[in-house]
Amino acid sequence: MEDGRLLAGRAVRELPLEEGAGRERLYFTANRDLDGQAWHWLPVNDIVASGTPPELIVLERRRHGQFIGRLVAVGTVEAIRGGTPQQAAWARLEARLAALDQLRGERERLRREVLRPLIRQLDANQGDSDARRALAEANARVYDLQQAMRGEVALLESVDGRRLVQPLDEVLRAWRPNAMSLSQKLAAWAGGVWRFLAEGPRDGNAAGGVWPAIFGTVLMVLLMSLLVTPFGVLAAVYLNEVAHQGRWTQLVRIAVRNLAGVPSIVYGVFGLGVFVYGIGSSLDEWFFSDALPSPTFGTGGLLWASLTLALLTLPVVIVATEEGLARIPVEQREGALALGATRLETLARVVLPMAIPAMLTGVILAVARAAGEVAPLLLVGVAKLAPQVPVDAEFPFLHLERKFMHLGYHIYDTAFHSNDVQAAMPLVYATALLLVLVILVLNLTAIFLRHHFRVRHGVQPRS
Q1: pLDDT over 90 for what percent of the chain?
Q2: Fewer Cβ in 10 A, N or C end of the chain?
Q3: What local confidence, expressed as pLDDT, does residue 209 receive?
Q4: CB atoms within 10 A of CB 147
């Protein structure tokens, strides 16, 4: 800069100055623990020179965000005082980070496969001495792994000469972007996409991945579909095929269509009062009294969220299915009855198979609405952070009482409640795109099934 400052960072965007004289550019400079901020607006006219030094490294850390600067040495605190050649330091850093990844994986495996089952076993049986002994041994192994991860540090230097001692157990990844070839950049981009899809969030949801949110969204939508489809179809069949067509039937139809226009937050309040505080509290008193006052089903969870969204989308399925039943020609029913079929056989073997495409149309519309809803989920089970997904290898395998993460709520929380909204914006955009893709995949699956049944049980349009 003209004032003699040296900065290293990544240009994000450029805007004209308010006075109209020149432009200013936003740089992400990282190093929050050194500078107190990671973003700098710089007048473009004040930049004297710029370059891309190949020795600059970027560290992704668990705390304080990224670091951008130079690597001086790697080793113990005592060993790095004398300094180490740059190339040797980089090679040692790569080797040490690879070893740390293996240690972290082993620690997470122990926590997931050994510690958590033992803790739940002890909660169920307080006097199990064998479980206590196994838990103590597992804790000792986790402690040994954590000790093995500590000890070595990296001596770092910012471009303006300030030095920082960084413990390597807090470093997740390191790369030299200015020294990477095109193939290395593509590999790094693919690795970033995979981590975004496969890892859990961290740093207040402003970094990391969205795997728990993907899993929670898809699982909730599938459960909602399984709950709403049979009730919606049965209600439509009763209104169109069984009930006497009169004034009361028309009033019920009007009521169903009006329910489709009720604000979603009202369904959330209903789910909180009826499902969570009503049914859930009763289940806790009947079956989980030993755990009280800590609620099991008397708090928001996957089951209550799925039921609430099933109620929300029930009118859509009823209306779509009833429209499909109404389009089936009367001759189909009369022909089946003329051949000796009962009304039940006519309904089960003629009418319903021909109405399957309309049913799936209702399910498609229900999935599209439910997957993007956030307001009711705030009251009935969604969580800001729930890294443990509701499905695991322990009986009953599907834990309907657990809270879950949702892509829509993750977008809302990251965009409005992040410590660094500017840094979180790429994550917000990526998560929004992912939510659209998830809804698209679910809808395409239903559309494929609808096409299959339409070809198999096609209904000729009425003239």
Answers
A1: 25
A2: C
A3: 85
A4: 9
